[in-house]
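can u do me a favor
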C-alpha cells in the first residue's frame, strides 16, 4: 500500500514542516495576518511548482484524468487569497523543484493533496481568529468545499492503482520526502518575502 508507506516515510518531515509553518498558532487562534500571508505565499510557490512541473509529467503518461488534475488546481485560488491580502503575485519569487519522473511527481502530489485534507478544519480555525477579521474568504483552505472527503478518497484510489503500474515505489517515496523539503524552502522564501519573524 503506497499511501501507508508514504505516510510512514514522510512522518518526520511532515512533523518538522508543521513545527515551522505555524500549525499551533493556527489551531490556538494566535496566528497573525503576516504569518497567514506567509503561509499563503508558501503554498502558492509550492502549488505552482506542482501544477507547472508535476502535472505535465502525469499528462505525459496519460494519468491526468485518473488524478483529476483539472479539479485539483489551486494556484488561481491562492492568487485570489493573495490579492485580498494586497500581495502582487508577480513580486513572489517562484522556483521549481527537480522532478525528473512521474513517480517523483506523484510524491509531490501526495504532499499537495495531503495539505488540503485538513483544509476545512484549518479554515474554521482561521475564521474564528480575531487577528484575521479583515480576511473575508479562505479560498485555498476551502478549495474542495464539502467534497474534500471524496477528493481524498479518489486520490487514494488513483495512487493505489497507479503505483503497481509504474512499479517504482522507491521513487514515489523519494518524491514525497523531497516534496516536504521543497515546501520547507518555499516557506523560507515566503518568510523572507513577507519579512515575518522566523
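np, heres the sequence
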Amino acid at each position: 500500500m503506497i499511501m501507508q508507506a508514504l505516510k510512514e516515510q514522510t512522518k518526520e518531515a511532515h512533523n518538522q514542516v508543521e513545527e515551522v509553518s505555524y500549525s499551533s498558532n493556527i489551531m490556538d487562534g494566535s496566528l497573525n495576518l503576516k504569518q497567514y500571508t506567509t503561509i499563503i505565499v508558501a503554498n502558492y510557490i509550492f502549488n505552482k511548482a506542482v501544477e507547472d512541473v508535476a502535472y505535465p509529467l502525469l499528462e505525459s503518461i496519460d494519468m491526468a484524468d485518473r488524478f483529476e488534475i483539472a479539479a485539483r488546481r489551486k494556484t488561481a485560488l491562492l492568487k485570489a487569497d493573495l490579492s485580498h491580502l494586497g500581495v502582487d503575485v508577480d513580486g513572489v519569487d517562484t522556483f521549481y523543484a527537480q522532478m525528473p519522473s512521474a513517480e517523483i511527481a506523484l510524491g509531490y502530489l501526495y504532499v499537495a493533496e495531503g495539505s488540503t485534507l485538513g483544509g476545512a478544519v484549518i479554515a474554521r480555525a482561521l475564521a474564528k481568529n480575531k487577528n484575521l477579521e479583515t480576511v473575508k474568504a479562505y479560498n485555498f483552505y476551502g478549495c474542495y468545499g464539502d467534497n474534500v472527503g471524496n477528493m481524498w478518497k479518489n486520490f487514494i484510489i488513483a495512487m493505489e492503482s497507479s503505483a503497481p503500474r509504474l512499479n517504482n515505489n522507491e521513487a514515489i517515496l523519494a518524491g514525497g520526502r523531497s516534496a516536504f523539503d521543497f515546501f520547507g524552502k518555499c516557506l523560507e522564501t515566503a518568510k523572507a518575502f513577507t519579512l515575518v519573524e522566523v
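The longest helix spans residues 33-60. hope that helps!!
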